[in-house]
Amino acid sequence: MKFLKYYFPFLFVMIGLAAILHFVWLPYYVDTEIESILTHEKEKTRLLSDTVIPAMLSGDLAEIHTTLDNVVEKNPAWSAVVLQKLDGTQLYPLSKIELSQSDASNIVKHSLIYQEQELGNIQVQTDLESLIAPKVEKLQHLELLVLVSSFLIVMVGVFLQNRFIHLPLKKLSIATSRIAEGDFLTPLPQSSNTVLSKFVENFNHMRNDLESRDVQLMRQQTIQDAVHNMQSKFLTVQDTGAVYCDMLDTLLELSQSEFGLIGEVKYDVDNQLCMKVLVVTNIAWDLPSRNMFEAVIKGDLTFTDIDNLFCRALITGKVEINNNPESELLKMDLPAGHPEIRNYVGIPQYNGKQQLTGMVALANTKKAYSDASISELNIIWNAIGNLIDAFHRKELLSESEAHLRAIVDNAVDGIIVIDSNGTVLTFNPAAEDIFGYNENEVINESIKILMPPMYAEHYGANLSSYLSTVKSQLIGSSREMVGQRKNGEEFFMEVSVAEVRTGTIRHFTGIVRDITERKEQESQLIAVQEILSENNEQLLGLSIKDGLTGIANRRCFDETLEAEIKRAIRHQSSISLILFDIDHFKLYNDHYGHVEGDECLTKLANLVSEIFNRDGDLVARYGGEEFAVILPLTNESIAIKFAEVIREKIVEAAIPHEKSPTASYVSVSLGVATLDVGEFSTGSELVDLADKALYRAKSEGRNQVYSKEMSLMTAKLH
Q1: What angle do CA 260, 297, 351 make, to 5 degrees?
Q2: Could you say which of 185, 196, 585, 677 has the lowest number of CB atoms within 10 Å?
């Protein structure tokens, strides 16, 4: 009964098809047919109206009745025909009838029009059901026939599918499941279906191929496991001889050989090629052969005469296979008691750079050696060639490390090596002298023990930042830092750090030099330089500042004005100059004395200096009671406003001046001159213009501002 589940989808499809035919297509067909019938009936009604118009015009009722009776008789589907005049008088039939309004859609009405004048209308009611019913019944029979036929076709199709497709595929599925589980022994039974029969034949062929490939894959996996085991032992086992012994045992097992050897390429003092035996199968049969085997164990056996069968692969650089070596062995004159050699193969070994590193020799396999059997082990040959090279480099590295250790131990500067976590790995004797710790106290400790607490707190963050951003101010350059000795003493040291990467491992090597004595000398030198700098500043101040008021003196004014004029000309900008002096200052001095006069000059200098705080502005004592203000990047109108601010601020200070004819307080007269954009002039010319403006301000009554381009401005104090 399980196969019945395959019928359900088709049954659902059949039900859906029946529903579509009955509820969608059939009503649509009926509506379309009714519309067609009504269109036809309208046309017949129109023709009928054209027929009865002459009789209506003549008033011949008999003709009207005869015509309509004949038409009604010929159209049995017409259930009623009504002809009436425009005023509603019914001409046919003679008796008054009402058309059924239960379904007004089957009534066709047509107006009788003659020469654009409506005479009346004719109405025809059609029995649509009598016209549609036969067609609908026929369609329903056809619908049933289609459904029954489709059902039978589906049933037969599902049966045939189950018989000729499903059951064979089920058997195929079972067979593939067994193959997936590793069972390659059960073939797929033949099928009577031609297509499936060919498929089954191909499947069984594929099963045989998979079985063969599975054996090959298992063989390759065994070889890869052997390579992995060799590489793991190279990394974890310290005894190189033991690693080579395991390597040779693996080769003998995989190649099914009885004995063999592994040798390394060497060169004698004359640069002649020779072979150092790294490991050989113990086939000793007497004392000399046992001594030779022990020499191999000690690493003391090297073949210098390699022009023979056993070492020929080193000379040719190619695989040497000999499955009948008897004649070659006779030439070698093997010692009595040497085991029989039935077949032999020598395989040269290369590193990743295709450099000859050694060879492997195998003898007495159960089957003959072949290119295929040797190629099968290519992955092992590649690994052995690289491992021989790696062991050789490891030995060189050990020698290099010993040499480097001697250099580090005898270096004058301290050498410290840390890992990426800040753990100390190397601490040489010079570092011991600098910090006061011995090596055992520092190794495997954090580098923080060599730092003062305030630096040690931030060390972890700094190192993490470097490791994450690959940026540092210290790596690759020298830098002065503060260290801490074992006794707690802090000292200055110069540190140079280099990063060393070995694969993904980072080490940091620091060279440390105690610069305490140098820093003391530098401190003394800096102190002397500071004294000299202060003296120079004082001398400079004396040379550019007015000794009384503390503002710029005449020399500073002259130099600054020339420089600013050149800058203004170069940058095409404006520059203004304000000159002013104290009104009737001689009377002030005569009345109050020179001490008060000097005090008055100082107050005015301070008041004016407070007004100008822009970079580039300069307030200077021009001479006696006369002052000047240089205003770069300032046009005339702004300069006049600044001059007015000076005048008002001095008036607001209300410094008494009883002898002044101008006012009862100290006042000033100001002259403004401007060098506009594009004008060329010198400092003396600009001063001359400002001086003339100042003279005009004095001559016009003092205590006012004047410029060559302005009208006189007065600001008398009331």
Answers
A1: 60
A2: 185
User: How far is residue 5's CA from residue 21's CA, in Å, rounded to a whole number?
Assistant: 25
> Which residues contact residue 144 at a Cβ distance below 8 angstroms, ignoring those fewer than 6 apart?
none
**CB-based burial, 656-674: b 16+ in 10 Å, e otherwise:** ebeebebbebbbbbbbbbb
Q: Please list the active-site residues.
A: 625
- Cβ-in-10-Å burial (0-12, 13-18, 19+) of 644 comes to middle
Question: Which CATH superfamily does the domain covering 545-714 fall into?
Answer: Reverse transcriptase/Diguanylate cyclase domain (3.30.70.270)
Q: In this structure, what token pair is assigned to residue 677?
A: 């954009």
Domain with CATH 3.30.450.20 in the chain: 411-520
Cα distance between residue 314 and residue 331, in whole Å: 19
Give the position of tokens 């980072």. Answer: 506
Round to whole Å and give the CA distance between 607 and 188.
115
Identity (one letter) of the amino acid at 654? Answer: A
Residue 478 has a CB neighbour count (10 Å cut-off) of 11
* Mean pLDDT of all residues in 425-451: 91
Region 380-388: mean pLDDT is 82
Q: Give the separation between CA 388 and CA 81, rounded to whole angstroms.
A: 118
Q: Kindly report the CATH number that applies to the domain delimited by 411-520.
A: 3.30.450.20
CATH architecture of 2-132: 2-Layer Sandwich (3.30)
DSSP conformational letter for 450? G
Model confidence pLDDT, tens digit, residues 552-561 = 999 999 999 9
- CATH 3.30.450.40 range(s) for the chain read 237-397
**DSSP-derived secondary structure for 593-639:** -HHHHHHHHHHHHHHHHHH--STT-EEEEEETTEEEEEEET--HHHH
Q: What confidence tens digit (pLDDT) does each residue in 330-352 have?
A: 677 667 777 888 888 899 988 88
CA distance 493 to 479: 8
330-339 long-range contacts, CB within 8 A, separation 24+: 332/308, 335/288, 335/289, 337/285, 337/286, 337/289, 338/283, 338/285, 338/289, 339/258, 339/259, 339/283, 339/285, 339/364
Rounded Cα–Cα distance for residues 427 and 418 (Å): 9
Q: Please list the residue range(s) of the chain that carry CATH number 3.30.70.270.
A: 545-714
Cα–Cα distance for residue pair 385/391, rounded to 1 Å: 10
Rounded CA gap, 188 and 207, in Å? 9
| CATH number, domain 237-397 | 3.30.450.40
Amino acid at 373: S
Instruction: Say how far apart CA 75 and CA 206 lie, in whole Å.
Output: 78
Q: Mean pLDDT check: name the lowest of 145-159, 219-233, 263-277, 463-477.
A: 463-477
Q: Provide the CB-side half-sphere exposure for 519 (13 A, CA).
A: 12
pLDDT in tens, 1-12: 455 565 667 677
pTM for the structure as a whole: 0.37
| Residue carrying the six token digits 């038409």 | 71
**Sign of the alpha-carbon dihedral angle for 396, 398, 404, 410:** negative
- Which of the two residues, 387 and 290, has the higher pLDDT score? 387
- Segments of 355-489 assigned E as strands: 356-363, 414-419, 424-427, 478-484
The fraction of the chain above a pLDDT of 90, given in percent, is 23
Task: Tell me what percent of the residues of the chain surpass a pLDDT of 70.
Answer: 80
- Burial of 81-103, coded b for 16+ CB within 10 Å and e otherwise, reads bbbbeeeeeebbeeeeeebeeee
Side chain identity, residue 124: V
Position 90: which residue type? Q
Each residue's pLDDT tens digit, 120-133: 888 888 877 777 77
Which of 85-99, 137-151, 404-418 has the least mean pLDDT? 85-99
CA distance 493 to 513: 5
